[in-house]
């Protein structure tokens, strides 16, 4: 089972988003600072070079105009321009030379650097006819940026070198403004990242929550589902392997004990079949609501699917659990209004206790399920799991698993019990009864597996399997000259299979069997599902020539309704009315009623469970001509009944 | 306004707020850029609000709360 933790909050998401936002902000700020710095620096250098050019031109002009080229004059001029009180250049080198004079001054610039720079400058020897040339530029010498300007004409050559001041200034401005701007950009980015991440986080989280809720909750009732329960059970650490997940889920401490209830509604199937799925759904919603109201906050109600609910009550001992079970039964017994009819659903509850029964979450549910099954069988409302029914529970689980093989490997076979004419004991037909030849558990009667088949959803598959077996048997017998009808038991659920009639006919045709040799005995299985529909299906079978019988007449609720709607061929009086019939006047009355009903509807009355001659005689006296029971013969495998049929034996064999 | 800052967060914001507001108001000729001064002033003022009320508007929008953690 995948843990829901996968859907839980991704905590690193916000951090990642913030880191991304901040690194974007950082890189944008860096790019801006660098570009702005270079731009400012280039502008500054260009301005300085311009200015240097003008200074050089000015010096050149002065020298040309003064006609006084003494070095004294030059020194005065330079000091006036560059080293005044208000404005003083920190570093400067000037050299003026002509054919007969060489003057230079150096203020604070390393001599080696100057020499190196001069050697690189494009200075030409003075040529009389040389056109004035004014190269200038920026050269870096040992990490010091030097600006230089050379002016030369046919008489003078002037070289000015100074260090750049604009770079320092630029750096200063950048420090002041751009850094502060970057701080503000950073702040805005952090703000944006926080807001953005929380907004996205919230959206993702909402989606996650919705998904987690979808995954862990039942859409119909809104109750938690099996996945939720599994996670809950893991989180409360009934399984020692999941200690690390404990704190993540609901922060529940591991309980010292607890009780688990499996609740199964008794009549849900009937409501669903009779009133439709919408009514079934509204029943489930109502019951879920009622159950929820009966529980307190610490107890968890889970819908397992269908009409099965589970209640997990931590810290509840067995005594309290019994009380709660009783209360839940009462809650389920309260009538629910469906289609303006008050319907009383009823429920069976199985209880298992942790840790006295088991300390494993999965088997806790299984044990409660076993107990619930026990309660359903006994119709006792609730049942506490006990060691006594462990074995039975295990057997059930094993049988459930083996069921698939049973059908594919033909482990289920029909046994046959003769139906006889009471007067002379002649066999008029046989009833096919399913027996499971289980590889390890031996021969099993339907009591052990019919409800498993109904629960596993294989009812229709099983119905077809039985029909196939019966028709194959009929075919074999007819080849041997045995023309005895076989009756098979079908539950109303089988008749919900819309293809069943076609299936039966195809088989009858394939084996060339007359349809009158097949009888369908309708078990009511205490249900009264959609009578109209069932009647309609039955009438199709009847029209096709297949004989119909009402099984266990007198116990079901709808027998009379079937009889009045359909002309059934046989009415089988339930064995409970035949046992002790010779002493019990009331049972005689019921039997007499059944017999007279059968006469009215032109059906044969067949008494089930005839155990002695006195009963047979009494029944003949009352007008019932047919019977079956241990007095005549038990159900027997095909090898045993074949000789009886072949030899046309009259029962009982005395 | 519900508090959403723990005391350390609050103190850091207080210091940042005082420094930035002070700088924005009293930097003299240092910045020479009114836009920056206004932005710094806003930044400082928001931090000062956080100092006084123990509440940060951005945390509020982002749904972050550092106040509870100390008391859990």
**Over all CA atoms, what is the radius of gyration of chain B?**
14 Å
Bin the helical content of chain A. Answer: 40-55%
**Tally of separate domains of chain A:** 3
What structural class do the secondary elements of chain B suggest?
A: mainly alpha
Series of H and E elements of chain B: HHHH
Calculate the terminal CA-CA distance of chain B, rounded to whole Å.
20 Å
Number of strands of chain B: 0
Secondary structure: helix percent of chain B: over 70%
CATH C-level name of the largest domain in chain A: Alpha Beta
**How many H/I helical runs of chain A?**
20
Going by CATH, what is the homologous superfamily of the largest domain in chain A?
EAL domain
Keywords summarizing the entry:
heterodimer, A: 654 residues, alpha/beta, Alpha-Beta Plaits, TIM Barrel, 3 domains, 8-stranded mixed beta barrel, 5-stranded antiparallel β-sheet, 20 helices, 21 strands, B: 72 residues, mainly alpha, 4 helices
Account of the 3D structure:
The complex is a heterodimer of chains A (654) and B (72). By secondary structure, chain A is of the alpha/beta class. Chain A has 3 domains: 15-169; 226-385, 2-Layer Sandwich (Alpha-Beta Plaits); 398-646, EAL domain (TIM Barrel). Chain A is 49% helix and 19% strand. Chain A is built from 20 helices and 21 strands. In chain A, the strands form 4 sheets. Chain A has an 8-stranded mixed β-barrel, surrounded by 6 helices. In chain A, strands 2-1-5-4-3 form a 5-stranded antiparallel beta sheet. In chain A, helix 6 packs antiparallel against helix 7 (277-294). Residues 239-250 of chain A have low confidence and may be disordered. Chain B is an all-alpha fold and 72 residues long. Chain B has one domain. Chain B has helices at 7-26, 34-53, 57-62, 67-71. In chain B, helix 1 packs antiparallel against helix 2 (34-53). Chain B is elongated, with a radius of gyration of 14 Å. The two termini of chain B are 20 Å apart. The relative contact order of chain B is 0.25. At the A-B interface, helix 4 of A face helix 2 and helix 3 of B. Chain B: The chain crosses the membrane at residues 12-32, 38-62. Chain B: This is Inner membrane protein YgaP-like transmembrane domain-containing protein.
């Amino acid at each position: 089972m995948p843990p829901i933790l996968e859907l839980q909050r991704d905590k690193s998401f916000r951090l990642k988003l913030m880191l991304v936002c901040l690194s974007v902000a950082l890189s944008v700020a860096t790019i801006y600072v660098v570009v702005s710095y270079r731009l400012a620096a280039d502008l500054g250098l260009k301005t300085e070079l311009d200015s240097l050019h003008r200074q050089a031109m000015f010096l050149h002009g002065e020298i040309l105009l003064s006609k006084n080229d003494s070095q004294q004059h030059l020194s005065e001029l330079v000091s006036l321009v560059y080293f005044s009180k208000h404005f003083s250049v920190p570093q400067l080198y000037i050299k003026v030379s002509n054919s007969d004079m060489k003057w230079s001054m150096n203020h604070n610039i390393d001599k080696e650097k100057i020499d190196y720079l001069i050697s690189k400058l494009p200075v030409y020897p003075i040529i009389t006819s040389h056109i004035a040339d004014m190269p200038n530029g920026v050269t870096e010498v040992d990490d010091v940026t030097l600006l230089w300007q050379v002016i030369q004409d046919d008489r003078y050559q002037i070289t000015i070198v100074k260090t750049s001041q604009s770079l320092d200034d630029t750096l200063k401005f950048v420090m002041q403004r751009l850094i502060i701007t970057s701080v503000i950009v950073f702040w805005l980015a952090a703000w944006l990242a926080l807001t953005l991440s929380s907004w996205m986080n919230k959206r993702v989280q909402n989606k996650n929550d919705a998904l987690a809720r979808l995954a862990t909750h039942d859409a119909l009732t809104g109750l938690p589902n099996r996945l939720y329960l599994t996670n809950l059970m893991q989180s409360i650490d009934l399984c020692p392997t999941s200690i690390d997940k404990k704190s993540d889920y609901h922060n529940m401490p591991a309980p010292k004990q607890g009780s688990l209830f499996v609740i199964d509604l008794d009549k849900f199937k009937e409501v669903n079949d009779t009133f439709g799925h919408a009514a079934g759904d509204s029943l489930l919603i109502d019951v879920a609501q009622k159950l929820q109201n009966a529980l307190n906050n610490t107890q968890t109600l889970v819908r397992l699917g269908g009409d099965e609910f589970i209640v997990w009550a931590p810290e509840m001992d067995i005594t309290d659990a019994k009380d709660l079970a009783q209360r839940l039964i009462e809650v389920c017994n309260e009538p629910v209004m469906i289609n303006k009819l008050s319907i009383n659903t009823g429920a069976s509850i199985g209880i298992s206790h942790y840790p006295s029964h088991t300390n494993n979450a999965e088997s806790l549910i299984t044990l409660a399920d076993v107990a619930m099954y026990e309660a359903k069988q006994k119709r006792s409302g609730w049942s506490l799991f006990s060691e006594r029914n462990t074995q039975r529970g295990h057997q059930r689980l094993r049988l459930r698993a083996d069921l698939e093989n049973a059908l594919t490997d033909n482990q289920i076979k029909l046994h046959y019990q003769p139906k006889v004419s009471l007067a002379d004991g002649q066999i008029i037909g046989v009833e096919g009864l399913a027996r499971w030849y289980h590889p390890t558990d031996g021969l099993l009667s339907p009591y052990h597996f019919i409800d498993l088949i109904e629960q596993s959803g294989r009812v229709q598959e099983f119905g077809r399997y039985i029909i196939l077996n019966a028709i194959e048997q009929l075919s074999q017998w007819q080849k041997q000259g045995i023309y005895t009808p076989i009756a098979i038991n079908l539950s109303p659920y089988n008749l919900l299979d819309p293809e069943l009639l076609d299936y039966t006919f195809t088989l009858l045709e394939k084996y060339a069997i007359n349809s009158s040799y097949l009888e369908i005995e309708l078990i009511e299985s205490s249900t009264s599902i959609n009578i109209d529909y069932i009647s309609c299906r039955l009438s199709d079978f009847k029209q096709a020539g297949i004989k119909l019988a009402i099984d266990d007449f007198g116990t079901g609720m709808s027998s009379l309704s079937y009889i009045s709607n359909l002309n059934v061929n046989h009415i089988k009086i339930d064995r409970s009315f035949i046992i002790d019939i010779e002493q019990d006047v009331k049972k005689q009355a019921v039997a007499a009623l059944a017999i007279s009903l059968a006469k009215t509807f032109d059906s044969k009355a067949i008494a089930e469970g005839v155990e002695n001659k006195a009963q047979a005689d009494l029944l003949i006296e009352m007008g019932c001509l047919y019977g079956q029971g241990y007095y005549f013969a038990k159900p027997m495998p095909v090898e045993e009944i074949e000789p009886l049929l072949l030899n046309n034996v009259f029962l009982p064999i005395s | 306004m519900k508090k959403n800052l723990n005391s350390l967060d609050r103190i850091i914001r207080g210091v940042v707020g005082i420094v930035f507001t002070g700088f924005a108001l009293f930097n003299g000729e240092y910045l020479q850029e009114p836009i920056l001064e206004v932005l710094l002033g806003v930044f400082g003022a928001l931090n000062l609000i956080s100092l006084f009320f123990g509440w940060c508007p951005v945390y509020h929008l982002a749904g972050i709360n550092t106040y509870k953690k100390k008391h859990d």
